[in-house]
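Contributing new records

If you add data, match the layout below exactly. Sequence lines come first and carry their own label; structure lines follow with theirs. Keep one chain per record. Anything else will be rejected by the validation script.
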Amino acid sequence: MAGKASGKSKVAKKRTSRRTATKKPVLLSGGNPQIAKGYGDAPVKAYIAAMPGWKREVGCRLDALIARTVPGVRKAVKWNSPFYGVGGQGKGEGEDQGWFLSFHCFTKYIKLAFFRGTSLRPVPPGESKQKEVRYLDIREGDPFDEAQIAAWVKQASELPGERM
């Protein structure tokens, strides 16, 4: 059997690669997608594509709103959540200035976390055990106040970010 590097035939390899390519992401408790840690737009797009049901549309709207409000925003997926940050403000082009917000899927809502939320005006409504963090919970059918969310995103992007 010279020339055969593995025990799988070409057909079996093709089936395996096809299954791998179309495999759906795992949803963790609450329906939060399990997406590998990564930096850039691609992992965030993969996370949003894996968000279940109505949450996917909201995730798309949030991502587009953030990108539109903060040109050049940095993106990553960490701890199975999309993170958004800025770099190059005053300390050299491209230097990491930390993360200013993230969101996460739960069973009945999406939790938008502003890491310096107590500095935003008006302060987002959801309190946190962490001193400066504030949340906005978005539930199915809730009105999506794009102007208010954009104002918070803009303010948050101008504050010092969190190093994580």
